[in-house]
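subagent[fold] <- orchestrator: predict structure for attached chain, return tokens only, no commentary.
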Amino acid sequence: MRFFTIPGVDAPQGKWVSLSLPRRFVCELMHHAKTVPSIPSQRRMQLSRVIAARNARPEHISWCAIFMKAYAIVSATRPPLRSTYMRWIWPHLYEHPFNVANFSIERIYRGEEAVFFAQVRQPELLSLVELDLLVRTHKAAPLESVPSFCRTLLLSRLPTPLRQIVWWLGLYSDGGYRAYYFGTFAISVVAAAGAAGLHVLSPLTTNLNYSSFEDDGAIDVRLTYDHRVLDGSTVARALVALEAVLCGEICDELLASAVQTQTPLAVL
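subagent[fold] -> orchestrator:
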């Protein structure tokens, strides 16, 4: 649709494209995320041992599952990472008793590339194999079979005034509701496409993302945090702990999983 013409210009006209339901959800998410005074913090990690352990399995565990569990282990022992800033009825911090991970998945919705979000309660209690299966299931299962995807589409179908009320209630009315529907931390990465977000906006207290690996196993890991809840030194120590967990517990579990996978072949 064009309200005026440009004299002397004979070019194909553009068109208006309505927001799809997933795009409408992301617009609402960014509306609330931009109110968070977030700061990105980065640490270059050396994960060559983790890469080798991961490659020892015939079927590789996804990096999303690996980082999700590692960060959940770190957050489980650090209550500030499970806390969130709540501004109603008066400003205060709410500390959730356990982790709820939120990770993004790209899916095709009615011919359009769209982003959906899924939540995992206490991922640190799941094995990497279980967590990897869960991630892969969310990537391949029919959209209508995933509850969080259905909530996204249902919410985005609501009229604007009602949709805004539901968003406000979910994010600001109660810390427990907020953790259940949105998570206590988020993971949003595009490293598989050879890119990385430098400052990922999110309404959550922390958002983890990482770049692609260098040839020597080095990788830049970023944690964007809400400065109302956390300070830079706390986040820096969390990143140090994350690298230690990746090179310790996670690496050990990957190696143990590889041995279990290869044992039946050895018997035969």
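orchestrator: received. Logging for downstream: The beta strands are 38-46, 83-86, 92-95, 100-109, 112-121, 185-187, 206-210, 218-226. Residues 232-267 form the longest helix (36 residues).
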